[in-house]
Amino acid sequence: MDLIQVVENEFKIETEYPKFGAGDTVTVSYKIREGSKERIQNFRGVVIQIRGKGKTKTFTVRKMSGNIGVERIFPMYTPFIDSIEVNKFGKVRRKRIFYLRGLTGKKARIKEKRF
């Protein structure tokens, strides 16, 4: 094994998250440390993309805060993610939906998958 895999195996965290993809609305409970205090902050938005593989996998979540779009990139396997909850499954045709950045109002809606 090379050195990078040895270090990854040393620090790996086994966590199970629900399956989600681009277009899904998720709530990420993220641990924030401020000094000696620790709190959990929820970030709810639409998954724009999932990239990477293995332990370096990341996903980008976009939410609207007022009229401003806020995007945040989360590493999938980090000890700071408390939980991921899928609120809605979106029906999209692409894996990376960057076109959502340019849309506003009703055009920015994503249809929901019904099961």
Please, could you describe this protein's structure?
- The protein is built from one helix and five strands.
- With 115 residues, the protein is mostly beta strands.
- The chain has one domain (17-104): Roll (SH3 type barrels), CATH 2.30.30.
- It has a five-stranded antiparallel sheet with strand order 4-3-2-1-5, with no helix packed on it.
- A hairpin with a 2-residue loop joins strand 3 (58-65) and strand 4.
- The mean pLDDT is 91.
The CATH class: Mainly Beta
* CATH topology tier name: SH3 type barrels
First CA to last CA: what distance? 44 Å
* Percentage beta strand: 35-45%
CATH architecture classification: Roll
Helix fraction by DSSP (H/I, runs of at least 4): under 10%
The outline comes out as globular
Instruction: Estimate nothing, just give the exact number of structural domains.
Output: 1
Q: If you compute it from the alpha carbons, what radius of gyration comes out, rounded to the nearest whole angstrom?
A: 16 Å
Give the SSE map.
Layout: H1 3-11, E1 25-34, E2 37-51, E3 58-65, E4 68-75, E5 81-88
Antiparallel strand pairs: 1-2, 1-5, 2-3, 3-4
What is the compact description of this entry?
Helix content is 8%, strand content 43%. With 115 residues, it is mainly beta.
Attribute tags:
single chain, five-stranded antiparallel beta sheet, 5 strands, mainly beta, globular, 8% helix, SH3 type barrels
